[in-house]
Amino acid sequence: MKKILLLGLIILVLVGCGSSKDETTFKIGILQWAEHAALDDAAQGLISELESMGLDKVEIIHKNANDDNSAANLIVGQFVDAGVDLIYAIATPAAQVAVSATEGTDIPVVFNAVTDAVSAGLVESNEKPNGRVTGVSDMAPIDTQLALIKEFLPKANAVGVIYNTGEDNSVHQIALIESLIGNHGMTLNVQGVSSAQEIALASEQVTANSDAIYIITDNMIAKAAPQVVGIANEIKVPVFMAESGQIDQGILASDSISYFGLGTQAARMVKSILVDGINPGDIPVEISQTTSLFVNEKVALELGVEIPDSILERATLK
To answer: What fold, for 142-242?
Structure first.
């Protein structure tokens, strides 16, 4: 399959043009909140799985809101005008716009890269979403990731986290970290930001008082990960990340969910809704079915961090 990705333009993808299982042509609008590795993978995972499932034709309109709420609303309006059969919304802000801007329609919304769909007001419960919305959660295994930091750095006392105060996902994760970090003998050094322009200063302040930096699944911070990593690594503070899409950008380690994998899970939901006729509200919200541990061996060497044998036994080295 040849895929041409032109930001902000319509993309038509003919999926699985061999033997067909269904003669209907479906039109799907993909609303991606921002451009970074995790969200790109979430989109590609869906497209790839639709192809592998052998649907005859799927016309995909893929647009990126570039972190802009007004742009997202405009895009959803365009999807409605185009007569899409379903909207695939990637990231919490995108999902919130997709749901609110299609109120009064029967257009199903399948979300991805949403940490807490209930708190975000997208579903009534994960087990029984109700309505026309369901999807997959990118809730990171936070307790496992905090344990990884301590396993790498037994003497670590403070973990620094920077987050976007305006992103529901991030606020939820901070609350979870605060409730769990003491179990690992560490404290949280947290700094909230409200714009990308604040990230550099926040990174400097947090890094100066932390033994490690942990980048959560936050869209604003994920886009700025190279900047955060550069500041931290300059003073030999290791950076751990909740997802592994940028492991080659100076991240020491990530026990990560796969956003591509989440995309394949979402694709199966899409098939259930469009082909099998299942009500989205009857499909439970799913979480990642697997995690994978990645370690950047080059970064470990540069930072003078020894990789414990217990980690070497189960990690993929980059």
So the answer is: Rossmann fold (3.40.50)
Find tokens 């503070």 and name the residue.
Answer: 237
Biggest alpha carbon–alpha carbon distance for the chain: 61
**CATH class (in words) of the domain with range 25-138+258-289:** alpha beta
Radius of gyration of the chain (CA): 20
Give yes or no for residue 112 having a pLDDT over 70: yes
Other C-beta atoms closer than 10 Å to the C-beta of 178 total 13
Q: How far is CA 251 from CA 192, 228, 232, 264, in A?
A: 21, 10, 10, 25
Instruction: Give me the sign of the Cα torsion angle 225, 227, 231, 236.
Output: positive
Q: At what angle do helices 259-274 and 37-52 cross, to 10 degrees?
A: 40
Mean pLDDT taken over the chain: 92
Residue 89 to residue 34: CA distance in whole angstroms: 11
**SS3 category, 94:** helix
**Residue 97 in this model has a pLDDT that exceeds 80:** yes
Q: What angle do CA 82, 84, 88 make, to 5 degrees?
A: 125
Distance CA 168, CA 247 (A): 25
Amino acid at 31: L
Cα–Cα distance measured from residue 123 to residue 117, given in angstroms and rounded to the nearest whole number: 6
